[in-house]
Design a protein that fits this description.
Layout lengths: L11 E4 L1 H5 L8 H12 L3 E4 L5 H8 L7 E4 L4 E4 L4 E4 L5 H14 L4 E5 L4 E3 L14 E3 L12 E5 L5 H12 L4 E3 L6 E5 L5 H12 L6 E5 L5 H6 L2 E4 L5 H6 L2 E2 L7 H12 L1
Parallel strand pairs: 1-2, 1-12, 7-8, 12-13, 13-14
Antiparallel strand pairs: 3-4, 4-5, 6-7, 6-9, 9-11, 10-11
Helix pairs in contact: 2-9, 4-5
Length: about 270
Amino acid sequence: MNSVSTGTFPRIVATDLDGTLLSSTGSVSPRTRKALQSARAAGAEIVFVTARPPRAVRDIARPADVTGTAICSNGAIVYDVTADEYTVTSPLAPDVAREVAGSLSRALPGVGLAVETGTNVLTEAAYTRRVDHDRAAYREVGSIFDEDHPIVKLLALSSAHTADELYAVVSGAIGDLAEVTHSGVEGLLEISAPGTTKAVALDRLCRDRGVGPAEVVAFGDMPNDLAVLLYAGAGYAMANAHHLVLSAAGHRTLSNDEDGVAVVLETLLARA
C-alpha cells in the first residue's frame, strides 16, 4: 500500500459523508469544519465521495465551506459543487436494470425496488424507505420502468434481511451484470452500472488533476468506501466502520462522533 509522505500534505482529501465526516446528527462539527478549511489553506482539494445524490450534498457542502467537485451516487455522478451542476457519467442501462430487477425478484420475493435518477427517487409500492432530509424527492410509481429517466442507482429493499445477507444473495444472483454494494442501511442494497464505484470515479478525478494515489488521504466507514480506502495513499477507517472495512483498511481513526476526520487532518497539518 502507498503512504502519504511525511512532511507533505495530501493534495486530495477524499471523504465519505454519513458515518464519516458527518456526526450522528447529520451535521459537520465546528472542529471538523475548521480542519477542512485548514486543509484547503494547505493546498488540498476536499472531495466528497458519497452514496448521496447531489441534492443531498449541496446542503452539506455550503455550511462546510467546501467547493469544487464531489463524487456522488457511488461514483455514477460527478457534481460541480460551486456551479451546482452535475453530470450522470455512468447510468445503468435500462435493459440491464430490467434484467437485474428480474433476478432480484426471483432471488428475493417481495423485494422493494426504487430508482435514483439524480433528480429524484422513483419507488414502487413495496419500497417503503424514506430519508427524512430528502422526502420531497420521493415519488411512488406503478413501475420504475414506466418512465424515461437515467438510472443512476437501482435500490433494493428487504425488511427480512440485513444488508450483508442481501449482498450475499444478490451478488451471486446478478453476477457481473452490475456493481452491488451497501452503505450501512439495514436491508438496503445499492446497484450501479458495471465498473461504477467510488474508487473508479476518484481515480478518474485524480488523473485529470495529475494526482497520484500517494497524494490522497481518504476516510470511510462502509463497504462502498473500502475500494477508496485501499486506493488512497492513506486510507482511514472510522472507529464506527463496518467490520470488513476495519479489517481491510490500512489505518484507523476515531469515530465520526469523535471528529475522527479532523483528528487525522490536524495531525497531518502539524507534520507538513
